[in-house]
């Protein structure tokens, strides 16, 4: 897992109208959690629609290393025979989470209150990301951690023998940190309380309740206060993973900027903690309609219809919307280049600690393609050039970041000259069918010789 093979340079060429249906894969966040919560239940959890991207496959392997049985069936469904809360066995090998921040952080959380030791690593991107945000709260439960300087992987976690419940206020808007603390709290006696000042994606809370945990959420002056009763017996579930709004963003945005396009992206999960991009695009003037709105498995779902939108204007994206679209800023910055006027993205410093420094990666790549960008520690402003004014013709560096690679491939479908990326290999971490799906809509994405 740790490190991709040879880089895959790619180029995206100006396309004719994009048309058809784009069936994007399952939600990455819900896929990781299905495997982890399945492994923490006693009995068989069945999952359909699991994202079979490298990040999630890494979590499946990790769950096996901790003693669960995880199997893919010929039908494409997955089953997990879990070991129960507190039942994790000590892995014999280093756990390699590849490129997946969600994978490594959630797994560190859920082994931290079990008396076992595990060592974690990942690819060059993951090894550069901060893990102190997990080791700080798990220390409160009594877990010890030994990593590289700056709290980086590789890192060994020694789980607590006698975990104590914790009350913890998450210092940054992060669903990964919130989830790691809740998962650690599962095997601590008594009540663990997690407080988040800004709401982040709430899949862990919803799914813990679905698996039978006693969890309640209150909105207070302090923020969202989540109280979890420790040491439940989780009940295995049957899960149909909704399709990923963060993946849907790519065909949707491609349709909005490509003349004549009309694309349907069916069955997209529109949990309000995830749907900020679509609100933003509509405020910019995008012709984006939610068709067939319904509820599935307790989550809002709709079919997204996106049409070419030549009249989009830049806006200031409200800061309090950032968490609900945090992974979508790279592709929004591409759409912003095709709008008129400035698009201001503020309160987004978390973008600097993703798979890459996404503010820097997008700013440099946009500039290489003729777009002007202003940036600061926690903001980025893209100066729009209008629907047919984006020059293109440059090569962006992906920095082992799937969302950067895909965003520039979307830019190329409508820029005047082709847009290249030095390495599209990381796309397989979250969206392994990206090239085929975009090609079926009419995009022209080619693999170049390195
Ligand atoms: O909990 C999750 O599934 C995720 C949380 C977000 O990360 P942060 O918690 O670092 O904001 C997001 O960027 C990531 O893609 C998935
Ligand atoms: C930030 C992301 O993922 P992770 O943190 O799991 O690596 C992402 O998918 O955009």
TrEMBL record:
Pfam families (alphabetical): EPSP_synthase
Annotated positions binding phosphoenolpyruvate: 28, 101, 129, 176, 358, 403
InterPro entries: Enolpyruvate_Tfrase_dom (IPR001986), EPSP_synthase (IPR006264), EPSP_synthase_CS (IPR023193)
Protein name, per record: 3-phosphoshikimate 1-carboxyvinyltransferase
EC primary class: transferase
Protein family per UniProt: Belongs to the EPSP synthase family.
Pathway assigned to this chain's UniProt record: Metabolic intermediate biosynthesis; chorismate biosynthesis; chorismate from D-erythrose 4-phosphate and phosphoenolpyruvate: step 6/7
Chain's gene name: aroA
Catalytic activity: 3-phosphoshikimate + phosphoenolpyruvate = 5-O-(1-carboxyvinyl)-3-phosphoshikimate + phosphate
Residue ranges constituting the Enolpyruvate transferase domain according to the UniProt record: 15-436
Oligomer and partners: Monomer.
Source organism, top-level taxon: Bacteria
Region Disordered, residue ranges: 1-24
Described function: Catalyzes the transfer of the enolpyruvyl moiety of phosphoenolpyruvate (PEP) to the 5-hydroxyl of shikimate-3-phosphate (S3P) to produce enolpyruvyl shikimate-3-phosphate and inorganic phosphate.
GO molecular function: 3-phosphoshikimate 1-carboxyvinyltransferase activity
Record organism: Maritimibacter dapengensis
PROSITE patterns linked: EPSP_SYNTHASE_1, EPSP_SYNTHASE_2
Cross-referenced PANTHER family: AROM/DEHYDROQUINATE SYNTHASE, PENTAFUNCTIONAL AROM POLYPEPTIDE
Keywords from the UniProt entry: Amino-acid biosynthesis, Aromatic amino acid biosynthesis, Cytoplasm, Transferase
Predominant subcellular localization, coarse grouping: cytoplasm
E.C. number: 2.5.1.19
Compartment list: Cytoplasm
Residues given in the record as 3-phosphoshikimate binding sites: 28-29, 33, 174, 176, 327, 354
Keyword Transmembrane appears in the UniProt entry: no
Active-site residues (renumbered): 327 (proton acceptor)
């Amino acid at each position: 897992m740790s490190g991709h093979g040879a880089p895959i340079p790619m180029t995206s060429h100006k396309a004719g109208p994009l048309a058809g249906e784009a069936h994007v894969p399952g939600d990455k966040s819900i896929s990781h959690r299905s495997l982890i919560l399945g492994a923490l239940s006693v009995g068989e959890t069945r999952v359909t629609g699991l994202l079979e991207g490298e990040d999630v496959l890494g979590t499946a392997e990790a769950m096996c290393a901790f003693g669960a049985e995880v199997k893919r069936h010929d039908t494409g469904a997955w089953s997990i025979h879990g070991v129960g809360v507190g039942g994790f066995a000590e892995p014999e090998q280093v756990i390699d989470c590849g490129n997946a921040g969600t994978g490594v952080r959630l797994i560190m959380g859920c082994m931290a209150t079990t008396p076992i030791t595990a060592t974690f690593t990942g690819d060059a991107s993951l090894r550069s990301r901060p893990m102190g945000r997990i080791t700080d709260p798990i220390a409160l439960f009594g877990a010890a951690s030994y990593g590289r300087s700056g709290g980086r992987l590789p890192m060994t976690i020694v789980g607590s023998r006698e975990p104590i419940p914790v009350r913890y206020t998450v210092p940054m808007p992060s669903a990964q940190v919130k989830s790691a603390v809740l998962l650690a709290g599962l095997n601590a006696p008594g009540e663990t309380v997690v407080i988040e000042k800004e709401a982040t994606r709430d899949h862990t809370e919803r799914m813990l309740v679905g698996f039978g945990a006693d969890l309640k959420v209150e909105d207070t002056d302090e923020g969202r206060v989540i109280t979890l009763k420790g040491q439940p017996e989780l009940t295995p579930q049957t899960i149909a993973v909704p399709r990923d709004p963060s993946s849907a963003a790519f065909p949707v945005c491609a349709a909005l900027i490509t003349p004549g396009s009309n694309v349907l992206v069916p069955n997209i999960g529109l949990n309000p903690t995830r749907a900020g991009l679509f609100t933003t695009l509509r405020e910019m003037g995008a012709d984006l309609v939610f068709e067939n709105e319904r509820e599935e498995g307790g989550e809002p779902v709709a079919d997204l219809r996106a049409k070419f939108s030549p009249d989009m204007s830049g806006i200031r994206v409200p800061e309090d919307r950032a968490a609900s679209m945090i992974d979508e800023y790279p592709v929004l910055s591409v759409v912003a280049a095709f709008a008129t006027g400035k698009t201001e993205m503020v309160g987004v410093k978390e973008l600097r600690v993703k798979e890459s420094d996404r503010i820097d990666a997008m700013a440099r790549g946009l500039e290489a393609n003729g777009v002007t960008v202003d940036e600061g520690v926690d903001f980025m402003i893209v100066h729009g050039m209008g629907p047919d004014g984006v020059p293109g013709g440059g090569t962006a560096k992906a920095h082992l970041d799937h969302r950067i690679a895909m965003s520039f491939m979307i830019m190329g479908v409508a820029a005047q000259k082709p847009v290249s990326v030095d390495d599209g290999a990381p796309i397989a971490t979250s969206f392994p069918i990206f090239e085929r799906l975009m090609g079926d809509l009419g995009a022209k994405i080619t693999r170049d010789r390195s």
